[in-house]
Amino acid sequence: MPITRCLVLVTTMLAVIASAATGDDVLLKNKTLYRGAVDKDNTLRQISDGLKRIIIRDSKIEKITPNDSLRGLERFQIVQPLEVHAGAMPTVAIGVQATPWNDKGRRQFSYYGPRSKSPVVMTQAINDLGPYMVRFRGVDGFWVGQVTTKQVPKPVVIGLLGRVDQTVLNERQRIARFLLQSEWYPEAKAQVESIAKDFPEERERAKEQVKAIQDLQARQELIEISVIRGSRRPKDLIARLHAFPSENVSSDVIADAREQLRKEEEQVAADRRLGESLRDVEKALTPDLQKGYSRSIAEILRDLEQAPDAVRSRLDPFAKADPKLPPESRLALALSGWIVGPEAASSSPEEAAILWKARTLVRDYLRASDDASRSENLASIQSLAWTQDKARPDGKIDLETLSRLIPLMPPPLHSEPVVGGKEVTHRVANDVNDEPTEYMVLLPPEYHPMRNYPTIVALHDGRGPKSAIDWWREEAARRGYIIIAPEYLLPGQAREYRFSASEHAAVELSLRDARKRYAIDSDRVYLGGQVVGGIMALDFGLAHPDLFAGVASVSGLPAKYVFTYRKHVEHLPLYLAIGDLAPSVKEAVFDGFARPMIADTLDVTYVEYYRRGLEDLPEEASAIVDWMDKRRRGPTPKSFEVFSARPSDARFFGVVIQDLAPGSAIAPEAADPLGKNIKPAKITMRSSAPSNLLNITTTGIVNLDVWVSPKLIDFKRRMEVRINGRPFFKGLAKLDPAALLTDLRFRGDRQQLYWMKVTTAR
Questions:
Q1: DSSP letters of 184-247?
Q2: Predicted confidence band at 22 (pLDDT cuts at 50, 70, 90)?
Q3: Average pLDDT estimate for 616-637
Q4: Per DSSP, what are the bridge partners of residue 291?
Q5: Which backbone phi and psi does 327 adopt, to 5 degrees?
Q6: DSSP for residue 385
Q7: How far apart are CA 573 and CA 629, in angstroms?
Q8: Which residues, in sequence order, are bridge partners of residue 722?
């Protein structure tokens, strides 16, 4: 039987389905795909899959496709003990705790109700098992609920399926269909083979089914290979392609895998030839030049071998250079392109040497721990001079060159060795706080400092940084994310968020410190937290909208300053996930907070789980990281309106508040839970490209600094910075590396650079 016919047979017979029982496919404009029944509420769309509902604005949807294939999922009723037969679900469940499911499909569960002084404790048991969702109930207390099947350990599910009568062919075939619908292909294959063994009349049919299952498994492997490629794991990628299965796999699938392997191996060979050509040029140099360039060439060759995907493009000018050029000129193209990128590569050996020296001095400046060393390094940078360069009439190294150099540097505090997959704890360098700030880091597999990685700043739920890392661990490793988990609670402090400056400082200092140690893509830094950490994620994220590409809050209740800072979501995508048994979920979370922003077409995704309380919802990790993958921090906005009601909420896209006016700030303990008594300071900024003007107006602020970005102002022309109608700078700026490097050392953000500071303080 042809393999395509096998696929049709097994797909029809086993109903290969990976999602909800009924519904539509909803494709968003950013290519996110949701599946479920779609309901309309004016401009909002609700997508429900039986576990949760997702609410988005209709304008975010590209198309909705009916999906009638989502029927016929296998389900098994599991006999479990039952002591309590009746009751009612609570209206609110907080402090939810649950042990892992045991081999009998049971777990211990507890929660606090709205007026509980002690927890309600019960045993829960799975009584309905499906490939997408399992349902459970209370054994000795009333509860009915559901979770995704993926949240139940696979051995537990397999054990429960083992209760099915193994002597009945139809039941065994139902188990096979269940396993295939779950996309557990090795287990489905084993089940079909065991059916063939126990029921000889099924052998021929089983052979064809096994072939089709192997093909489906290979197709799933192709999908995972694409994830590996996106997570920048070239060694794992090639290993998986080499090990790609071929038995009973469709020719088109095998051809796809082999073509990918061919391209990868061709690229490896091309990278090897590129390194060899660089060595050949090195050999053509005079002995003195070889000695002078040996360390630089060794660095390039090392990184080209270890992280070719991240660095090979820097050598394009060298690779494309005329072979007739003198070897020192060809080498200069490699050396300069390595430091400032291929667009700014130079064939001048003198300029290449200056660039390498500049990078060393910038690194030393950023690493220096005392003012004297920094002053010395800064003076050396300021004295660097080009030779006979008409583009630089003063002969000095310019900020445009430094701005090309800085993002391509290794992290200034990078140290060997760095191992992915193992947590490391750091204490913030030169921390001036009374309580030293510590944070935990987990690097992805095949981490290399010449790659820039997306990063999750993970706020724990009160149980410490390790718990935060564990929540994100699996999906972050799979997608190639760094995790930073700050300890924001003080020793002995209760497991609750206090909206304090101390907590904010711990997170901000941790991120700044980590940027200096690790290859963090500052345009892809995301903030996430659960429960207590989810509350802080909302508060800290909206208070610092220029730090993140998105904020994900799981079971985080908006409170106090969050309502005041809601307008900041114009610049900060927001993902909210919560259970419908959380307190005030409809009034305060959805109607009072999320719904107005979704209706205003802001980038807000709201996810509400059915019959779930205030808990950490671990099944959301994959969906949230997928959401993060599609978002980047935008460029410095040409205009914005922001608010501040705490001294810690002081920096917004380069505008830094130095002093709030009396009455503009309010202490956390005095703030109304819904923010009704908060009267914040306000900053409005408008930029005008034709007039080269930054126009800033404020209320409730005494003094501020304005860090000016080259993305908003053309520093080659006369410019103006006007604050509350008064020009604080007007004319042609005299630029100096000091301002750029001072700010860079302070924040560690190598992708958001400022060239000049204007202050209102006198």
A1: -HHHHHHHHHHHHHH-GGGHHHHHHHHHHHHHHHHHHHHHHHHHHHHTT-HHHHHHHHHT---T
A2: low
A3: 95
A4: none
A5: -55, -35
A6: B
A7: 12
A8: 695, 727
Bridge partners for 607 per DSSP: 54, 577
In the chain, the domains with their CATH numbers are 18-67 (2.30.30.100), 79-152 (no CATH), 424-629 (3.40.50.1820), 639-759 (no CATH)
Residue linked to tokens 């009916």: 66
Identify the three-state secondary structure at position 506.
Answer: helix
SS3 5: helix
DSSP letter string over 98-117? EPPP-TTSEEEEEEE-TT-S
C-alpha pair distances (Å), 606 with each of 54, 60, 224, 535, 584: 6, 13, 27, 15, 15
Q: What is the pLDDT of residues 199-212, one digit of tens each?
A: 999 999 999 999 99
> What pLDDT shows up at residue 286?
92
> Angle of helix 169-181 relative to helix 154-161, nearest 10 degrees?
160
Tell me whether residue 315 is exposed, middle or buried, using C-beta atoms within 10 angstroms of its C-beta: 0 to 12, 13 to 18, 19 or more: buried
Contacts (Cβ under 8 Å, ≥6 apart) of 506:
437, 439, 486, 487, 488
What's the CA gap between 509 and 486, in Å, rounded? 9
Question: How many helices and strands in the chain, by DSSP H and E?
Answer: 21, 28
In terms of Cα–Cα distance, which of 710, 750, 745, 236 is closest to 452? 750
Which pLDDT does position 392 carry in this prediction?
62
